[in-house]
Amino acid sequence: MADNLKVEELDQVVVRFSGDSGDGMQLAGNIFSTISATVGNGICTFPDYPADIRAPQGSLTGVSGFQVSIASDKAFTPGDKCDVLVAMNPAALKTQYKFCKPTSSIIIDVDSFKKADLEKAQFEATDAAGAIAEMGIKQDVIEVPVTSMVKDVLADSGMDPKAMLKCRNMLALGLVCYIFNRDLSIAEKFLRDKFSGKKAAIAENNIKVIHAGYDFGANTHASVSHTYNVVSKQTPAKKGRYMDINGNKATAYGLIAAAEKAGLRLYLGSYPITPATDVLHELSKHKSLGVTTVQCEDEIAGCASALGASFAGALGVTSTSGPGICLKSEAMNLAVIMELPLVVIDVQRGGPATGLPTKSEQTDLLQVLFGRNGETPMPVIAATSPADCFESAYAACKIALEHMTPVVFMSDAYIANGSEAFKLPNLAEYPAINIPYVPESMKGTWTPYMRDERDVRYWAVPGREGFAHILGGLEKDSKTGAISTNPENHDLMCRLRQSKIDKIPVPDVEVEGDKDNADLLIVGFGGTYGHLHAAMDEMRAAGKKVALAHFRYINPLPKNTAEVLKKYKKVVVAEQNLGQFAAFLRMKVDGFAPAQFNEVKGQPFVVSELVAAFNKLI
Amino acid sequence: MSEYTAKDYKKGQPRWCPGCGDHFFLASLHKAMAEIGVAPHDIAVISGIGCSSRLPHYMATYGMNTIHGRAAAIATGCKVSNPKLSVWQVSGDGDGLAIGGNHFIHANRRNIDLKMILLNNRIYGLTKGQYSPTSPRGFVSKSSPYGTVEDPFRPAELCFGARGHFFARAVATDAEGTVNVLKAAHAHKGAAVCEILQNCVIFNDGTHEAVYTKEGRAKNAIYLKHGEKMLFGENNEFGLMQDGFNVKVVKLGENGITEKDILVHDAHCEDNTLQLKLAMMDYPVALGVIRDVEAPTYDDAVNAQIEEVKAAKKYHNFAELLETNDTWEVK
Fold first, then answer.
1. pTM for this prediction
2. CATH says B6-212 is which class?
3. Domain with A519 in it
4. Judgement on whether residues A80 and A123 belong to the same structural domain of the protein
5. Share of residues in chain B with pLDDT > 90 (%)
6. Is the CA virtual torsion A325, A327, A330, A334 positive or negative?
7. Which of A237, A282, A415, B24 sits a CA distance of 20 to 30 A from B188?
């Protein structure tokens, strides 16, 4: 590290890597976040993929971004804007510049700012300086000859030119590591683990390039005015082993963990749909754990087959996004009346219809709560962060199995693709999953809709002698289990199915921040937790009295909901829809009349906008 | 010998209309199951919605009377996750081929070990008399007062088009024929479609009139048996011969035709061309096992792959799965 340079200590910095889809920006970003996490920083990442699979190289629609926020303590969001933007080509500069602050540093590969490259990105300028002027960029731009340096470094490697160019991302990464005083040995280990055995040469070549990028920073003080350091604030609670995890992978892990804890086969019936498909991909890999995945003919069959698997004694799960929920609703409904366990994963995206497939919203809430015919109460759990997808998926399975009911687990494109540090869980410490199998002693007297004190019916899995029975979509007599159209019986069964859900114990909602004297209570649910928390932190740092009540359990709501919502003078419900959670809370809590903050842009909240809106309410 | 009798599979009092083909079929199913001898608690009978889908209520096995059209999909999850179960899926022509058509073809394509019963009365009975996807063109019903203007599915054609490996047909009133077909379906490992021809006495009586009585079948049906000459008629006086790319009906003794000219049925032939020709005949109506070809089943393959991967991979529980990731330690 150059000792005559100013090293600025920061609590949080945000780096955005951007380039063509094939430029390896996601990998560079991942390595950078892993290095930072390893030294104890909080990390939060967000990949921003183009909607096109392979847009033309260098075009404006083909730009892929990866934003990583590193913080001395917990990083709640990937950051509204970045401190450093890496733009590997003109298209990246043009489309990603909007994420820069006035103080940002911008790193470009000057070798890719030739006339032809600029034309592809619809610049009139013919060189880098011209492009910068054309865009009116006032920030520091570090012009790095990335491509030519990579070619020089790898000249003796025996690699073909095309393969060499794939290492450009590592040069940029090396320079970023220099700017943020990151230890390259961690990157080296990461690459050697990733490319081992026959691929070891790839790791070594990439490591050479990273060092070249780092040395470029160290040797050209003129272009880098100062470097930064984000020191980790150690707390005992943070001690432990971690991995980087995104929400979809954490969801898959939660399902696997719950099935193992319950001693059941995990069955996933699914159909590919963005942004939920990675749950199917992840689970499909783990056949050595006995996980069964069936890619069905349609969304309907995904859900129906999962319910069939549950009938046969497995933990049936189906995964989808909003449009798939529309199709699955009839089998979800069947699960309600058959009272079988089923977990429905809804990774929300922008709607209606095909909507914004790769973008994030919270617009499915009322659909999963109410989008079925008849009285069909269903527990709903909304994960609050990438790592929380693990906890929430586990909780969803536990409720489904212990209370014999379908459960909806909600996440969204933002937390599904975003990642954060995940402390390796010890399954032995997780609560047991106690399945209400029908006891052998009931043989001869048991009927399918007998219930325990929680109004939960017993589970008799096919194969057990003496418990053969029929379930189905027609209303059944509460005592005999035979088909019944008796009015009193139907009324009773509707109430019993409701009461069973109402009796599910869920933890109280926690109030964070100025819980005793807040002038404003922020209320949210699901994947917006990080942004709402960051907004609260910023307001409190400015001297405001603010609290946050963020809901993971939507149905049933925590017992203390009304008490919390009525305790504060001013309450704002902030959500990425036009007011669905606020409407639900108004329905459930008499006289509740909150202010609302609603946005349906398909993008994560912007903390500064939240703060500005919330400040107006105080 | 099976330790069970038909009574062991019987439950409740069917509520179908008097004379409905479903009654006949149910009795044959009870009888067939007793002869097959799988314990009632190891059987799951799964239906969709419709008159015939009430059937699981009258079985002393595990069962589900689910939602319209989805029985095959639900049965798929059931069989794949619990391969020990003998899974029977029961649908009518509306349930199985209209709203459930997609699941029908994919269950056949995947070759899931399901016994797929298709009770074909060419009408929607429970909704009181609309045309179904197997009603003939021009069929007059409540929803087609001027006759339909669409062609029907022929279930065998759909099954074969979906790469189905087993197709059999019986008439509901023909107990022996039905029991034989059901036993053959059970013996076949894989998706086994049994088309059961039945009249709806209220809305479509007589639709299968030509073969509904013993006398009618003697004249108008042919019982196919693998490895036997395809002869039919009251005195076996007719037979089937190949005629170019077609199959034709011939009379023995006419034009010098003798029994040795008659085709021998091959249900095990992998190429389904001639089997399809047999299944598509209007006269005589082919009954019995038309196609019965062995092939790997999906449920076996899924579970075999799990075992292979278990043997190849080094992680077998959640804790070991975590260790497959890059991790770091915060001290």
1. 0.95
2. alpha beta
3. 511-615
4. yes
5. 98
6. negative
7. B24
